[in-house]
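thread from #wetlab-drylab

HS: before we spend reagent money on co-crystallization trials with dioxothiomolybdenum(VI) ion, can we at least see a predicted complex? here's what I'd submit
DV: go for it
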Amino acid sequence: MIVNASVGAGRITSIDDRAALAQPGVQTVISHRNAPKLPYRDSPNANNPDGNRLRVFQDDQVRFFGQPVAVVLASTLEAAQHGARMVKVQYEARQPATDLRTGQATAPTSYARGDADRAFAAAPVKLDTTYEMARNHHNPMEPHATIAQWDGNRLTVWDKTQWIGGTQRELAAVFGIPDTSVRVLSPFVGGAFGSGLRAWPHVIVSALAARLAGKPVKLVLTRRQLYSSTGFRPRYDYRVRAGADRQGRLNAMIHDISAETSSYETFTEAAMAPGQMLYSMPNVRVDYRTVPLDVNTPIWMRGPGYATASFAIESAVDELAHELRLDPIAIRQRNEPAADGSTGLPFSTRRLRECYTTGTREFGWDKRNPTPRSTRDGDLLIGTGMATAVYDTARGTAQAYVRLDARGTALVQSATSDMGPGTYTSMTQAAADALGLTMDTVRFQLGDSAMPPTPPHGGSMTMASVGSAVLDGSDKVRTQAITLAVNDVRSPLHQVNPADVIVRNGRLAVKNNPARGETYQELLARQGRPHLEAIGGFAPPEQNRSSFYAYGAVFAEVAVDARLGLVRVRRMLGVYDAGRIVSPKLAESQAIGGMVGGISAALLEHTVTDPRDGRIVNANLADYLVAVNADVPELRAIYLDGNDPQADPLGVKGLGEVVYVGVAPAIANAVFHATGSRIRNLPITAESLL
Ligand code: MOS
């Protein structure tokens, strides 16, 4: 059980562990006073942001409230919990800086095209507004947990992680051992939303404790500890200045983005991208600043960067539409680009216009009275709103092992994760389809660093990257089998053109003469082969000749209680252009999950920090509110049929993130339409509406 700092900044002056060690079952208390100095080599390929990562128990400094300052090892969980409460830590505390507004921003990362400042100054219609997004925590159902075990100089770790390879490399770097001496196992994740994308301090603590104890150690973070010991979506201020003509054509946008980070690492994410590419205009400037504070380091959370930027941009476009008396969809269509304005590259596929028209029809958008506060249902003010969603089609280098056995079954392995999107199922589908097997004869395994490497299980890139590697390996094995058959004088397929051989249900046959063929089993048995195997691979092209994004149009209807300010979402529709949909059922689940998450961010989620000491005051699920069944209405998702063959061999564009982006601004825009009140900070609360 970890002991967490109870001050927000300063230095540890003493640690008294005598009372803890006197408790039955307590074996050791480890802190900076008795921990060995660890090598902490640089670990460039483990998702660590720029800076100096927190080095557990290596010094007396307290960098944020809740920082791990000691760990208690005991023979039972209860003894460890009790022992942790008995450790007396004293501090020389100083006032922590935890407020984005009062912190000192670092130099911005900047993007510009044209002269946005001049064009904005000259614009006939101007908008200048700032949007604020609260800090959010991922709150996966299962807490982060690690079991570590040393065998000599070899370390095995069972961990909740979205990146087996990153955790492996980070542990190797911290302990100064080769990557190959660390094995990471994570067959199930139990939800994450991004919180498992790097190895947090408790993973190192577990391994350190196991090394010192000389036996396996299990460490589970409490719900409260998740708030200080893993990352979060940072708090943002996002100022938009937009200049347009009276017809709603945008000429300039200036984006000033400000986000919190820790004092020791600079976390950044793709918050600049939507401002650069979503709408067509000649003049754009984006400045993205981070503000180092006495907090722990943020990390990506579902729809990272894009969700935040889209709340600001999609609210601003809605504000402009209202001012110009334009329909919110019409203003977007008027600014639809022919190519990516940030790179000049053509879009591989961009079907936003279809998303808008399909959404208009299916949601009944046309029936809307455009005047705010014009529709009532008893005491309820009814409004509808929409927003555009966008997320880049990220891809990474991945490999997969594919083995076809003599029994006619297949084993497929790749060191990826399944945090909930259904990786196990979708990879099984991809392999079964390419091998010509039924799904029940294919076994897909993941979550072991001994398996072929993959990129992080994040950024909506698993299906594109790992799926394409699975496809490649399966194609190779199927081709091997066909080659064996057509070259075998005893095969019914002897001398058939390989291109004319298809495989269905484990049987190879001539395309136009299905009676002529044989099963994998028959082929391999006759050949005396125990199996056929291949490593499949995927690597994204080094130079993109197109601009790759997934898109969506999100529609929401809300009811706002005019007397109480309570907002209820009554229905939602998302229409998505996400490339090929491998599994409609899983895609539906992702879209609904994304909408639930977006409703949650729009109306409920807010990590609150006490400015006096940096304590997170609502570090529990009673006070940190997330959407539950009662908050969620009928949700509907439509995916445009099609695929993006340039993106990857499967034609998928990624969908786990884009379905989250755009939900909060669609709701905020609906709240404006219902009430006439423009709420520019998330979450939208009753207080802000009253
Ligand atoms: Mo997602 S934030 O990349 O897990």
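DV: Residues 409 and 441 are 5 Å apart (CA to CA).
HS: ok that's useful, forwarding to the group
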